[in-house]
Design goal:
The complex is a heterotrimer. Chain B is an alpha+beta fold. Chain B has helices at about 1-25, 50-60, 105-120, 120-125, 155-160, 170-175, 180-185, 230-235, 255, 285-295, 300-305, 335-345, 365-380, 390-395, 420-425, 440-450, 455-470, and strands spanning about 30-35, 65, 70-75, 75-85, 90-95, 135-140, 145-150, 190-195, 200-205, 220-225, 240-245, 260-270, 270-275, 310-315, 350-360, 380-390, 405-410, 475-485, 490, 505-509. Chain B is globular and about 70 Å long. Classes of the chains: A mainly alpha, B alpha+beta, C mainly alpha.
Chain lengths: ~290, ~500, ~300
């Protein structure tokens, strides 16, 4: 069930039948990305300006506060757009860190096997057996909550996913002819790993990354919800949601708009990830 | 004929009895209360938690009792007198009182209670140290005891009205053991224990032989609900009749008020909130800077907006209910211009960075501090806020002096005496005072403890409050009200300032 | 085969010891339970604290404490909670069924939703129904679970009054927490079912069944589903671990008296014995499920044993 079989099986069906998924995904991620990119120009105060005389203004009624204000009189729109920066930062940096560690470790352990492999696999087992949120609660109790701690925590708990995925792929690839041939003609280990193996791993890894970015944006908001997050003056979607929850029934806009922002962004990444998976990893290696 | 008449009479009698029984049952009803925490043990020596006291005040009695209005009245002791210049107190005990299991209350129970508290069993728990002033208890006769004191404790009589001083049944504990007592408490209070499911609920029922006003309701259930929004949702769904503080976040007050069958009831609370200055490091070493920060923050506006008016401004670190409160001491006014001038005088550059450290468990305070940061921004000080997990903050950051320029101080003592607060907040070397070393203040704090005269001690405490305010050791914020969410089917509800809510007067439809 | 089993068991045992060691060590860095018990009360002296620590057994060296924990583990005696002294095994005995019933019901909901949807998507591959199903199921994965929970409480408990907003009181109280967690699994499961079904549908016996003139429904559910059942069940089993991670938040919002609630309170109170026990039990569950899956794979596909 690769793409070629699509064509043969369903003659007449469009070959790019995932266009809707891709278009929506790109649209959602693109819009949020652009908003975040230009937030500094449109809202120079970053949504941090407090005005106790303009608290809880409803949306669509005030020109300067189009999405209303929060209990401290801060502009909800400005905070959402600025808050996107935190969410994307957490999502992207944590995934980047986890990928770097995971891919390197996974390649080493899959390629060299032996003791190194055994240690890595046990580390993976341990990591998978520790429930993440409980780990997070404990770590934040020790070190205090901050943006960097959240990111490090996510890296520590997620690198194993990449390590496991890459290791499995490398083990399978090692047996393939082109690697055997490269080894036979004396290509060095480093060159072999990076110029022959790595290109063949990128597909599944990118898929997993996209899905994890989405996942980590949600995890950050869950941590903030549990009171383990970051400086409350810095706008973040999770923080706004947690704060807005108590106001939900008389000032719905404080929580509903950041909720929508999270949903649009995360859905965008999920759609892209799903679309990519069809292109790059049709057999579903990344699901397990 | 005669038989028929008798039968008829019997029938009437039965009907009458049935009616009487029915009306008795009608006076009953169940009250369901939400409490934020399960203390885990119901033994008085085991805990410091307000959540424990909220339930236990219905199970147990102390020798004294503090009414909702704060007055100390007779409890299991009907009267007492101070002897030997304050080093001995004689209590005359109430007669005819029984514990829930029928065991009689007498001098032996009092002696047992305090020997247990001050002995091995008490050593395993936190309550013992609160009663360190007591040396021993001597039985004079079956209903008279003498408390011999190691040192004079002006707050002791109040302490006997709560927490570790609750009178427990000696025979019951000796027969069933300590572990059993933790989860099957017996006292002399208006309600007796029915069942307890850890982390879920504890159920009590009316104690028919209570010595005081018997309860109106027949059953009293406490459900443990940690998440305030969840507790309020339960109240809205009609499955809970009363949400205890701190269950109602300010943000949800409006939600409750919008429902005709619900209401919000408040009382002035015991807690006070302030931001303490780091007087050892950074720009807050300078008294002018500290005063500038107080002047620069509009505390009244924060109370009116963020706290919805459910709080009172404070000038010193105590509430109006506290012994030592001085109505004539008023907080510094809001004066941002003066604040800027003071900062300029002190040579502080605009845009100077500073950090405020707070705990992560109080949504209203969190918002209030964000507003404080906003006001500081207006006098050109850039404040960041750092959140800490509560216990880490209390046990490491503050005592070790690792805080930023400002840090949270909150105090919710139930004894309402400024001594308790002030000594631990300002005396050199105390845990809550990592920075200030002031010999003069130390002396003031120590000497007031020796004073037995009430008025003299009050003026000594007021002098301390003034001294602290003059030196601007803290940025006083507010004294929040205790907020109760209530279903209107509950009648005769009187809020209390410290969550120790006795519910024997309350009735339900 | 016996060698493979033994090896996997030994590995599981090693992981178990490592996890408990890490947890026991980490929680002891989070602060002093004696200070917790006294709520930071200033009246408490250092001597008082020392007495409390001694009563809790905290004065012994770390490894002595850890060994006595391991010894207790063998007889399922996890000691007593620091808060109130309830035997931890009693707390676990109440909380574990609560958590398991929640986890299993959410998996059932996810399966009930994702199997028909996944099959439909596979059959309608590339058509609008396929796209709609997949975009909608992805949308279910795209908001925080506490957010979904709050919204459901608002609609079904407060506005409509159909379901209890929290607590564990019979079937009706299980619905919202289970749906909250189930929705998140559905997205992944729809994809799994769809992929597995697509593979199966191309197999020869399906062609044969179709050629025999069997009804489409019978082909799909009888022949198709049966043949992709094994990989699907394995995948669902593996999701169990992921599910446990999300349970803390959902249990807290719905005040569900499960392991998540127990653990969250235990960290806040520095209740070492309870936290150690909860993490041990959770890890045991995850390791056991992984082990069963691994062994099952090993039985089906001998190549795995070599890995």
């Amino acid at each position: 069930m690769s793409r070629t079989s699509d064509k043969t099986q369903r003659k007449g069906a469009p070959t790019h039948f995932r266009t809707l998924e891709f278009t929506l995904g790109l649209l959602f991620v693109g819009v949020m990305g652009l908003a975040v990119l230009f937030s500094g120009i449109v809202f120079p105060d970053g949504g941090e300006k407090i005005d106790l005389t303009a608290r809880l203004l409803p949306p669509f009624t005030h020109g300067t506060h189009s999405l209303g204000t929060d209990p401290l009189g801060r502009d909800v729109l400005a905070r959402i757009v600025t808050g996107g920066k935190i969410s994307l930062e957490v999502g992207l940096l944590s995934v980047a860190g986890a990928v770097t560690v995971g891919v390197v470790v996974g390649m080493m352990s899959g390629y060299y096997r032996g003791l190194c492999d055994m240690i890595v696999m046990r580390l993976v087992d341990i990591q998978l057996a520790l429930p993440f949120i409980l780990l997070a609660i404990t770590v934040i109790a020790i070190f205090g909550g901050s943006l960097s701690h959240t990111i490090i925590l996510l890296i520590v708990s997620q690198w194993v996913q990449y390590a496991r995925l890459v290791r499995g792929l490398v083990i399978a690839l090692r047996e393939r002819d082109f690697i055997q041939q490269a080894q036979a003609i004396g290509v060095g280990d480093v060159k072999l790993l990076f110029s022959h193996l790595l290109p063949n791993l990128i597909g599944p890894v990118i898929v997993l990354m996209t899905l994890n970015i989405a996942n980590n944006i949600l995890l950050e908001s869950s941590l903030t919800f549990l009171g383990l997050g970051i400086d409350p003056t810095i706008p973040s979607w999770g923080g706004m949601l947690a704060q807005g929850r108590t106001y939900l029934q008389n000032a719905w806009w404080i929580a509903v708009f950041p909720g929508l922002a999270i949903m649009v962004t995360v859905l965008g990444f999920n759609l892209l990830g799903d679309w990519l998976r069809d292109r790059l990893d049709p057999t579903g290696t990344t699901l397990r | 004929m005669k038989n028929g008449f008798l039968n008829c009479f019997r029938g009437l009698l039965a009907t009458g009895l049935w009616l009487a029984a029915a009306s008795l049952a009608h006076a009953g009803g169940t009250l369901t209360v939400s409490s934020a925490q399960d203390p885990g043990s119901w033994d008085p020596v085991d805990t410091y938690l307000v959540a424990w006291a909220a339930v236990a005040t219905n199970l147990y009695d102390g020798l004294t009792y503090r009414q909702p209005d704060g007055r100390l009245v007779a409890g299991l002791a009907t009267s007492w007198e101070t002897l030997d210049g304050g080093k001995r107190i004689r209590f005359h005990l109430r007669q005819g009182v029984t514990f829930h299991d029928g065991e009689p209350f007498n001098a032996r129970a009092v002696k047992f209670t305090f020997e247990r508290l001050l002995g091995d069993q008490g050593s395993k728990g936190p309550q013992k140290s609160n009663y360190a002033a007591i040396d021993h208890v001597a039985i004079i006769d079956a209903f008279t005891v003498d408390f011999y004191l190691k040192l004079i404790d002006p707050v002791l009589l109040t302490k006997l009205a709560g927490y570790g001083a609750m009178i427990v049944p000696p025979d019951y504990i000796e027969e069933h053991g300590e572990d059993w007592f933790n989860s099957h408490p017996i006292g002399t209070g208006p309600f007796k224990f029915v069942s307890y499911e850890p982390k879920v609920e504890i159920s009590l029922e009316r104690f028919e032989d209570f010595w005081g006003t018997k309860a109106n309701i027949s059953r009293l259930d406490y459900r443990f609900i940690a998440e305030p929004a969840t507790a309020v949702a339960e109240l809205q769904a009609g499955r809970i009749d009363l949400v205890m503080p701190p269950g109602v976040p300010i943000g949800m007050v409006g939600t409750i008020k919008n429902k005709p069958e619900l209401e919000v009831v408040t009382a002035p609370g015991p807690s006070v909130y302030a931001l303490r200055f780091n007087t050892a490091r950074g720009i807050t070493r300078d008294e002018r800077v500290r005063k500038a920060m107080i002047l620069g923050v509009d505390r009244q506006a924060i109370i009116d907006s963020i706290l919805g008016g459910y709080a009172a401004p404070i000038a010193s670190f105590q509430s109006a209910l506290s012994f030592g409160y001085d109505p004539d001491l008023s907080p510094l006014p809001y004066d941002p211009d003066l604040a800027r001038r003071l900062l300029k005088q002190a040579g502080i550059k605009p845009g100077t960075q500073l950090r405020i450290d707070i705990r992560n468990n109080n949504a209203s305070f969190n918002e209030a501090v964000q507003a404080v940061a906003g006001y500081l921004q207006m006098i050109e000080l850039n404040a960041t806020i750092k959140l800490y997990e509560s216990n880490y903050f209390l046990n490491d950051i503050v005592p070790q002096g690792k805080t930023g320029e400002l840090f949270q101080q909150a105090w919710g003592g139930w004894t309402f005496d400024y001594d308790n607060t002030a000594y631990f907040m300002y005396h050199t070397g105390e845990k809550w005072n990592p920075y200030d070393r002031d010999a003069k203040l130390d002396k003031m704090l120590e000497s007031q403890r020796m004073i037995t005269d009430r008025d003299q001690r009050q003026s000594a405490l007021r002098a301390i409050a003034k001294y602290v305010a003059d030196h601007a050791l803290e940025l006083p914020l507010y004294n929040p009200n205790e907020i109760f969410g209530l279903n209107r089917r509950v009648h005769n509800f009187t809020p209390v300032p410290d969550s120790r809510l006795r519910l024997n007067q309350v009735s339900v439809d | 085969m016996a060698g493979f089993l033994l090896k996997r068991l030994l590995q599981a045992l090693f992981v178990m010891v490592a996890v408990t060691l890490i947890v026991a060590f980490a929680i002891r860095l989070t602060g002093d339970p004696a200070l917790m018990l006294t709520q930071g009360s200033a009246a408490v002296t250092e001597a008082d604290l020392e007495r409390i620590r001694e009563a809790l057994g905290l004065n012994q060296p770390f490894f002595v404490q850890y060994l006595s924990f391991l010894r207790g583990l063998v007889s399922l005696d996890f000691g007593r909670s620091f808060i109130g002294g309830t035997p931890v095994s009693q707390l676990i005995a109440k909380a574990l069924p609560a958590t398991l019933s929640l986890a299993l019901s959410s998996m059932l909901i996810a399966i009930a939703l994702s199997v028909p949807l996944g099959i439909k998507a596979a059959v309608a591959r590339g058509k609008w129904a396929d796209q709609l199903i997949r975009i909608c199921s992805l949308a279910g994965l795209s908001f925080p679970n506490f957010w979904l929970a709050t919204m459901m409480v608002l609609v079904f408990s407060i506005t409509l009054g159909w379901l209890p907003p929290s607590g564990m009181s019979g079937f009706s109280s299980l619905i919202m927490p289970a749906v909250t967690m189930g929705v998140i699994l559905t997205a992944t499961n729809v994809r799994l079912v769809r992929t597995a079904m697509l593979e199966t549908l191309q197999a020869q016996y399906i062609m044969v069944a179709r050629a025999k003139g069997l009804g489409e429904r019978a082909v799909l559910y009888k022949h198709g589903l049966r043949n992709c059942a094994i990989p699907l069940i394995t995948w669902f089993g593996l999701q169990f671990g992921a599910l446990i991670g999300g349970i803390v938040v959902v249990e807290r919002v719905f005040n569900w008296p499960g392991l998540g609630t127990l653990a969250f309170d235990a960290v806040a109170a520095r209740d070492y014995p309870v936290l150690q026990a909860v993490i041990t039990v959770l890890s045991l569950l995850i390791i056991a499920v992984n082990l069963v899956v691994d062994i099952a794979y090993g039985l089906i596909d001998p190549r795995v044993r070599v890995r």
